[in-house]
Amino acid sequence: MQVVGMTNEREVWIASNTEKFRLNELVIIEDEELNNPVGEVIETYALNPFIPGVDEKSSILVDQEVVASLSSLGYNLEEEMIYTAKVRILSELFYPISTGAKVRYPCFAEVEELLLKTSPDKGLALGVILGTEGLTASLPLPYRRVAPLYEKGEIKPQTGVPFIFDYRAMNNYPHIGVFGGSGSGKSFGLRVLIEELIKKRVPLLVFDPHYEMSFNEVFHPGLPDDFKETFADRCLILTVGDDTGVKFEALTPADLCNLLSAVSPITEAMENAVTSILERGDSFTTFNQRLNDLMSLLESPNDDDFKKSFMASCQNIDEKKREAYLNRLMALKKQVGQLSTLKSINWRLNRLERQGIFRDQGIRQIEEGLKAQKAVIVRGSIWMLKVYAAYVLRSLYGKRRVYRDALQKGERAEEKFPPFVVVTDEAHNFAPRGEQNVPSRREIREIAQEGRKYGVFLVLATQRPALLDDTVNAQLNTKIIFRTVRSHDLNVIREETDMGSEEIKRLPYLPSGTGFVSSPVFGRTIPIRVRAAKTSSPHQINPFDELETVDERDGEIMNIIKECLPVNASNLVDLIQRLEACGFILSQERIINYLDMMVERGEIKREENRIVGYIYRLA
Amino acid sequence: MWNVQMVKDLRQFNVYIKTASKAIPHREELRKALSLWGTFRLGEKIPSLKLKELLGERTIAAVDGSRIEYASFYPYSLVLLRTLGKCTGREDLEKSKVITPLHAETAALVYKKKEKEGIGEEEAYRLYLKEELAHLEILTALEIAEKYKPCLLMLDGGFLLFDQFAEWRKLYKFCLENDIILVGIIEEVATSVLAKWLDLRLDHSLRIYDREILFGLLDKGEYLLFAADKNIKKNYHTVFARLGSLPQAIGCDFLAEQREKITQAMNLLYTLTPRHGQGIPLWLQITDAKVRLRKKETEKLIENCLEPELRELFFRANRERRAF
């Protein structure tokens, strides 16, 4: 192996007639004057000068017989291969490398510094670095069994140097972006990243719009025993509207406006109205009551009529209080003005209520989870999470900020609040680029810009980096990029990372689970293969498989049907009654459907009768 | 680019050679006439398995050389010679030499040649280079023969090119003693003996070369072996053969003492030649491709080894700096 052709201080060509070069592998170029720099193979080629290319006329190799004759004489034409590769130098040089310099493969110790920034117990073992397969043999023991791989449905032992992300370096280079299209391994990569963070007991707040983030099932029975691990006890799964919600009493007018605008954009008049109507300490009931009363007031033909009916309606309340309330309504009427504004607020409010977002529990559970250094997984539809995330993030980020600021100023903080990492998939929904007003964007932007100061970090995954807010995107110091096809997204990646054009060119063709990590922690783009996950997502069944399988319920119904055979299709009354008795209420069509399905499966047969139509019997 | 006179002259030349080529008899006549002087035989492709059996541990070897010049004009010339001996399944053997008439010793040799042959100095130099390369090839061939004792040793070119050197005798002897079939492969046949033998004459004074007679004469895989007393040059046995698909024949020189080996040798050569193409055994083609010095590489090498001022002083021609 040696350096050939014209060189410069950044790239060289190397050639060999025995070694096949492998993409991304590291080589040492023996140029004493330049301290034997290390390079990474970024393009590879092979050529046999005796096998002409398609554009050449010469046909010296067409005759396979001659080749066979020569091979029987001990000469293999295939051995005349010339392998060449383009190599990017990983250190900064000031002179070009001398042509003809020898090239060799390194052992692990020689390149350790370039590949590992921390040890597996101190960092996140996310996978292996591609192109380091040759270093497996010289790898020290503690690095050998941290990242088994998953390939074609099977678990394979780790080959190559593990990729260990120093999450502590996020203090200097905060936030992580995980990009990749569907099927690129993005979700898998995100899962592995979360697993590692959970293992390190980093408090996590995970927004889970896909209901797929649970960590209590073993991913694959083939995983090595010392690697198997589940995290049920370190996770807290909450669903918005069921287990968690917004505490209405704690809402500021701005919060409430945000929530309302998440249902549907609101006008300035509506914002003013909310600000006027909402009082400190309002519960949902009191606020809703006031709003409704105000609407009645505006609806009634004149104020006196309303006053009369109002005073008459609630005799049991102290008269003075009633009057004060009435006066307040009168004052509000002047400020608010339009009935339509109130109606608009009302329907948005009711929708939020119906979704269960104003649960009394509030976010206390989330806080407790974070304080216990757990992964708090918040589930809900995208729509719901968008609304909820803004509120939760502001609230929690606020608490953390208050705590840190107090520490900074040397004051005694009232409540200790830990640093935490916010993780979300479909991040472009939470912080979209563009004009439309999305409540969560402001919070995510703020954390992106200032979170580092307070120890709050983001892990944002999306399949459309081009749709992610620019400010946020620019703050994602580390980016893990899986297969990406869209040119818009590729452009964003080109602008926002240090990836070279060779790597960008590879992005549309990356196999699932293979990606590039672009991070200032490493100072260069690292190709990785994500390790096998320890846990799996609950819904990995193909929905089309679901269609073909018969579930328990179907089985029971079919058994009952079998018991009642023979039946005739025009008179199913008995069968219907029998099924109803067993708790299955089915229409006639559904029953015929079941019958036909059983015929198809060969369990029963169908006969045509001229008088009564079809008769079904046991086969 | 061109003018009317040029076109006229070229057209006239076309008529001239057309007439001349018409004087060559038809294929069948030629074959009939030539069969009085020798026999037409058909080569046999040897199957791989049988080939192994036939050769046993022995091998096939080829020697070829390459010459490249880095020069402005005589005597500012730097010539690299390289020869390669390649033996199947064995390690290659390479030799090389750098020659320049700027060297006093070389200049003296060139001068001697000029006096002896009575030719110009530059021409003498060209001849000297040609001989030096042939000499180096013979040295390589001898070493290959001694080291590997192949079954068949191919030289690139006819025996006349080599037999003036002292080492030729050595090689000759060694090959006979060790049962090495020595063959000189001639890609471009440039003799003009057949016309004389066949008593072919032209109205004009144009000479008929063997090349024209051989063109299209042979079937694929066929070769023409002359009777033992009919030698084209010296007492070597020259065989004309068409081993590939192209209609032009190549020449193969054999030693008189190895006449009875010719059939086996021709079958071997035919086996090692691709069906399509110009009919040169692949092994020789590979050797040729491997030994060839390429202009770009050579320039790089020389530029790396010679200091820029010296290069400028000796080898940079003014015409290289022409703008148009």
UniProtKB/TrEMBL annotation, chain A:
Classification via PANTHER family: HELICASE HERA CENTRAL DOMAIN-CONTAINING PROTEIN, HELICASE MJ1565-RELATED
Protein name: FtsK domain-containing protein
Residues that bind ATP: G180, G181, S182, G183, S184, G185, K186, S187
Source organism (scientific name): Thermosyntropha lipolytica DSM 11003
One GO molecular-function entry: ATP binding
Start and end residues of each FtsK domain: 160-491
Keyword Ligase: no
InterPro entries: FtsK_dom, HerA-like, HerA_central, P-loop_NTPase
Keyword hit for Nucleotidyltransferase: no
UniProt entry keywords in alphabetical sequence: ATP-binding, Nucleotide-binding
UniProtKB/TrEMBL annotation, chain B:
Domain NurA, chain residue ranges per copy: 58-293
Pfam family, one: NurA
Top-rank taxon: Bacteria
SMART domains: NurA
Name of the protein this chain belongs to: NurA domain-containing protein
